[in-house]
Amino acid sequence: MSDICVAKHAGFCPGVSRAVHLIEQAILDGKGPIYCLGELIHNRIFNESLQARGVRFIEPQDIPSLPGDALVFIRAHGATKDVYQTLADNGLEYIDATCPYVQKIHSIAASATDATFIIIGDKDHPEVQGIVSAAPGKTAVYGSFAELQEAFAGKEPTDEPAILAVQTTFNTDEWKKCQKFIKYLYTHLKICDTICSATENRQREVRTLAAENDLTVVVGSRHSSNTVKLYRIAKEVGGDAILIETSADLAACRARIRAANSILITAGASAPGSIIQEVIKTMADIRNEEVSFAELLEASFKTLHTGDKVTGIVSAVSASELKVDLGTKHTGILVYDEITDESGIDLTEKYHVGDPIDVVCIKFSDSDGTVQLSSKRLDVAKHWDAIKAAHESGEILTGVVKEVIRKEDTYSGVVVTKGTSRVFIPASQSGIAKGESLDPLKGQKVSFKVIDINEDRKRAVGSIKAVQRAEKKLAEEEFYKTIEVGQKFVGTVRAIMNYGAFVNIGPVDGMVHISELSWGRLRPPAEVLTIGQKLNVFIKSFDPETKRISLGYKTPESDPWTIFTNNYAIGDVCDVKIVSLMPFGAFAEIIPELDGLIHNTQIAAKPVANPASVLNIGDKVTVKIVGIDLEAKRINLSIKALLEPEEAPVEEAPAEEAAE
Question: CA within 20 to 30 Å of 308's CA: 458, 482, 562, 631, which one?
């Protein structure tokens, strides 16, 4: 039997070990509930064990909604500055398990007050995002040596001060090339070699040992940056390598394990020791199995079958196809047309060696040891299954409107894409009023429900309107939970009726009765309001069951009599408008909805028998306020008082005349 060796630096790095110890201690201490920002480590089995013990994984945007007794756990990757601020703003306790190596880079970034801070690493990785947030000034992130070269192509050296750092798990050889290149571009450059020593030792060890062994088995998650880098290095120097998450994945690699004379086992920084030990045991069991030549042949060439779905690892990338490691002797070939229907996609930019990819086997060729693959067909089936599931559950989906369908001047509807699936939204379900153009929807991201499917033809019908209706209903329910009698709103007049007006106050409409629209005589609502007019209203009463809201418009502050008494007094002179003529005098509007009486004896220097002989409705005249009856709310005006040098005694109008 051939040799199996285990890399000295396989498994948890010190930073991950520290984070695991801290969260285990928090669980044992009974603290909680515990919420971890993202998965603690890139290992599904370990994370599932934490969830089973009550740990919940969240995203930063979830922090404000956490309960007050929550304990938030910051993993080894660290977090951005705004996460710490949000925790403080919400008064939440937290444990900071940021790796010391990462904390060191945060300090370096924070020191770049007068220099550009440059970091080599994956801009989408949480470690890099946290580091960049610590820099107070200008920053730049480059993901590879090639990206760095492209960014500075044709540029002259600069004397601008700069600080250069690197992601802790970055490829050491790639980092060396970046340093050598950039130091000639910045004449005032400070280089900080911040690759974690554990990462550096792990990569150096694999680079040496993979070349000395027939097969390298890398244990860890396909979503772990440092694990994928180990796999890539092993492929570069050793030739044959497999990436597995657990010992169960070894079953598909039996032939390769048995055929290898020497095997190296290594593991990423997030691989627990228990999983590594299980892999070692399982591999030894496989190599000790008694098998016939026929069984070996079957394992080598027929592990997979047409129609099988499998997750492989990209082993080579070109403009026209990908080669995929499936963990068998067959080489997976994934051509452009089986990846996407879209033109113009650059496979060399979108895919990289070491990337995990889900595929389906469509055609085997044992003669040349290849299997034709398709990821597009897998996506089609997966997305259609998602559409069917959403139809059954009523789940709200989001998609982009790719096409507006119309025949001559009539709109039929729009087509929304959800992954590779197309969903037809009829015009009546688009949420757009009948007869209006659907063109503004094109290119928009919309939410919709699947309301009908045709399984045989793989066609689905959706509704944007159903989502809007559901959202409106939910908003209404929430609104009725919060409103109170007397609560004020700035509403918008939506409809005017003979008996009042409907005013929109957010997700609902309320009714302002005609009696609320004026203080004096009732006037038709259409004379007082216009559609779209903004109106200050308040809740008079409401019934959540019948969904009826009565709105008030009149307030003591808007009472014309209150306005008058606050601004006018006996002896004041003002301009008024004649609004009606009576046998005993003329009524004049002082302010809107408040009139005063100019008695016959006060219209001119001498009493006037017929006011209509002197005044016309609509005339504007200047008067003096000569009497205010607070109890009767009656005002006497006089033109005569302004014609005589000295004010003459005012002759009160008979009560019956004033009443008229």
Answer: 458
